[in-house]
Amino acid sequence: MYLFIINPRSGGGSGQRTWQAVETLLKRRNIAYETLFTKSAAGAEEAVCGALSRHEAWEAAVVVGGDGTIHSVLGALQRMNVPLAVIPAGSGNDTARGFGIPLATGAALDAALTGRCTAADLLSGADGLTLTAVASGFDAQVAANVNASRYKRLCNAIGAGQLAYLFGIVHTLMTFKPCRVSVACDGREDVYETAWLVSVCNLPSYGGGLLICPQAKADDGLLDVCVVHGCSRWQLLRLFPTVFKGRHVTLPFVTMLRGRCVSVRFAEARHAIGDGESLGTGPLAVRCEPGALKVRFPQAALLALPAGSPCHASG
Ligand SMILES: Nc1ncnc2c1ncn2[C@@H]1O[C@H](COP(=O)(O)OP(=O)(O)OP(=O)(O)O)[C@@H](O)[C@H]1O
């Protein structure tokens, strides 16, 4: 039995359209499933636990949505020990990218139904669990500015949601000020006087494919950290195109770290996001929870994730 968790609003309405396509395929293939439509992140965990308690043997809980929707159900899936599968329907879909899950609906459904499982790490902190990355500073401010903007609604209305983030980057670049940050990684503390951003990653990308920590692996028991500091606005702007290929990591104003426990303390209040969702403006302390979540991924992605094993029903 599969539980489909659907956020119709994700991807500006793509969740609803994607579910309609999935439903047709499931009926055609005679697959047994239940559905849970969630209206907001608040209460999603409880609703998922309630739905999962009704049966013993779940093959997987399949999220039809984006990274934010996945974020809202991580605690429930970990608690109920049910594998996560994903049909990407968000705007970023970095969880899917990180596990080699295709963005095309039919192929993603195949992976959900016939894929293998890996025991993926999670980031755990005071604000709960995160699967992709916790980002603080400039990137999180871009997200906050875009979400509060009029241009986001305008761009979504004309079907150009990604354009809003380009506006957001330019808007934030003009107003954001770097400041001192202290980053402690497994007990070793470093201070950066003019830091733009600190990203703590479990998967390589966020923001719709920005390879901020290209070496991050979901199942290595470690968190990868990227600190951008000591550069001008102009240098930061020029850094962006290089992040699509992960080539920024060798730049002199980029420091990469790796560890199990990471804390980040900016000298001034700075926004933070986990899986793209707001975590407020306080200091961060996150640790890696190795192998905390089973995730289904396609057979074809086995080379990238060698720890794959057959998925077993859970209860
Ligand atoms: N379980 C949920 N059900 C309904 N709405 C949710 C749920 N979890 C989060 N949300 C809200 O829906 C918004 C959009 O969902 P989601 O983040 O999945 O899609 P997206 O933002 O389009 O894609 P992505 O996160 O991949 O960039 C979230 O920002 C959040 O406000």
Automatic annotation (TrEMBL):
The keyword Nucleotidyltransferase does not apply. Keywords: ATP-binding, Kinase, Lipid biosynthesis, Lipid metabolism, Nucleotide-binding, Phospholipid biosynthesis, Phospholipid metabolism, Transferase. GO terms for biological process: phospholipid biosynthetic process. Residues 1-129 form the DAGKc domain. Its cofactor is Mg(2+). It holds the Pfam family DAGK_cat. GO terms for molecular function: ATP binding; kinase activity. Gene3D superfamilies: 2.60.200.40, Probable inorganic polyphosphate/atp-NAD kinase, domain 1. PROSITE patterns: DAGK. InterPro entries: ATP-NAD_kinase_N (IPR017438), Diacylglycerol/lipid_kinase (IPR005218), Diacylglycerol_kinase_cat_dom (IPR001206), Lipid_Phosphate_FormReg (IPR050187), NAD/diacylglycerol_kinase_sf (IPR016064), YegS/DAGK_C (IPR045540). Belongs to the diacylglycerol/lipid kinase family. NCBIfam families: YegS/Rv2252/BmrU family lipid kinase. This is Diacylglycerol kinase. It comes from Paenibacillus albidus. The lineage of its organism: Bacteria, Bacillati, Bacillota, Bacilli, Bacillales.
